[in-house]
Amino acid sequence: MSSTEPTLSGPPSLPEGPAPWPPSLAARKGQPGRARVVGAVIAAAAIVGILVGVASHEASGYFLFSPGTAPLITASQSCQASGGELSLPDGSPCVRLLVPKGTAHPVKGGLYMVDVEVGQAGALDWLLYQFGLLGGQHELVSVQAYAGDTPASELGCQDTQQMVSADQNAALAAMSVLGYRVGQNALGAQIVSVYAGTPAWRAGLKCNDVVTAVDGKPVRTAGTFTDLLHPLPPGTSVVLTVKAGGHDRKIQLKLGRATAAALAQGFRGNGYVGVSVQTQVKPALPFKVSVNAGSIGGPSAGLAFTLAILDALSNGRLTGGHRVAATGTIDPSGNVGDVGGVREKTVAVEEAGAQVFFVPKVEYAAAQSQARRGLTVIPVTTLRQVLAILHDRYGGDLTGLKGVEAAARA
Asked: How deeply is 217 buried, as exposed, middle or buried, from its count of CB atoms within 10 A (0-12, 13-18, 19+)?
């Protein structure tokens, strides 16, 4: 991530060494020349101060995206926590695939997930961006585009939720391809975001709370939650049964009127709570499969997790011996969804030595703009498409993937 700083005007330089003799006429008359220099320095400092102040204010509305890491996904016990992150004995980053003992095959090649570093933009970042000098490896993303109406305090919780969902969806999608019959048990309406200043915010609801009842009526899905609340007029008091930290509690709140932002985003109910929810599910798997990504959050590793599970539980030759990276969300049916920071992720997978990089189709151009020789970027929309490409172009072995291997032989 290299960039060049813009050159800002500073005070005029002064000659080095001893002052000339005899002194000039100006110097003998109270040194007005030096006064002019000091005045120029003060004026320049004031201009720079104003510029920095403006830049700091503008930068507060942006996040800075930078290349992160591309950890190897492995079932090896040598992937251990070190300094708060997971790494291999050689110091390279990894994430740990957890499957029952004796079920993982030795893997030929490698599968990599990739993350992106996100931080609050600074004044210098904003100035570089304005001068076109930020560089192709960095990107400024507005707070609105990145977080929407979600308060900054909720973003960490959202990242954790999304990683859990990615892990679960990857396991469900992989088990389906492996030929197992799996299901999901709905547990309630899990709160993803609580918007500031809303009835939910004032009542103390938080990200990751799970609503299991409204006025005593059971809630198992996000749809049930909205169906029970939307017909009620503003001003109605309701009692929510909420599970948090393994304990149930009752929360009473009074429904409000929908905000302009909520209406713009498609809210069509009457009484407004001020949350976004999803159905919390517990996968019914034939055996436990999960991925430990350490402190990494977000949903974008879903496709990579799915491929790693399939590789380990089939025959270990899914990539044909190649180093393959992937980014994209995954749903239980194997559909690949778009993510963010693909330009920066492309830089990270190149540095990790990946040869192939699967990306969501809608973000292919962004990834391709950063790809150098030696990395092939491939746009995809489904898991089955990825598997077919690995087989047809890279010699991937699909043995053990029910239905997919039959299609490949045909």
From this structure: exposed
Q: Which amino acid is at 260?
A: A
Give the span between the Cα atoms of 175 and 181, in whole angstroms: 7
Nearest to 76 by CA among 63, 88, 64, 61: 88
How far apart are alpha carbons 323 and 110 in whole angstroms? Answer: 5
Q: What is the per-residue pLDDT across 242-277, written as a single tens digit (0 to 9) for each? A: 998 889 999 999 999 988 888 888 888 888 999 999
Do the beta carbons of residue 141 and residue 65 sit within 8 Å? yes
Tokens, residue 392? 């047809």
Residues pairing with 183 in the sheet: 284
Predicted pLDDT at 235: 95
Q: Give me the amino acid identity at 244.
A: A
Q: How far apart are CA 296 and CA 154, in angstroms?
A: 16
Model confidence, pTM:
0.80
CA dist 70 and 38 (Å) reads 52
Neighbour-count burial for 67-91, b at 16+ CB within 10 Å, e otherwise: bbbbbbbbbeeebeeeeeebbbeee
For the stretch 328-337, pLDDT in tens is 999 999 999 9
| CATH numeric code, 67-123+157-181+286-409 | 3.30.230
Distance CA 114, CA 106 (A): 22
The angle at the Cα of 127, spanning 123 to 132, to the nearest 5 degrees, equals 145
Q: Give the dihedral sign, CA 240/205/262/272.
A: positive
pLDDT digits (tens, 9 = 90+) for 3-34: 333 333 333 333 344 444 444 333 334 455 66
Residues 192 and 207 sit within 8 Å (Cβ to Cβ): yes
Cβ neighbors of 52 (< 8 A, separation 6 or more) are 123
Domain ranges, ordered by start, for the chain: 67-123+157-181+286-409, 183-283
398: left (phi over 0), alpha (psi -120 to 50) or beta: alpha
At 324, give phi and psi (nearest 5°): -120, 130
Residue 51: band (very low, low, confident or very high) from pLDDT cuts 50, 70, 90: low
- 3-state SS class at 239: strand
Q: Which of 275, 119, 302, 280 is nearest to 194 (CA)?
A: 275
Give me the amino acid identity at 113.
M
- The reply to whether CATH 2.30.42.10 applies to domain 183-283 is yes
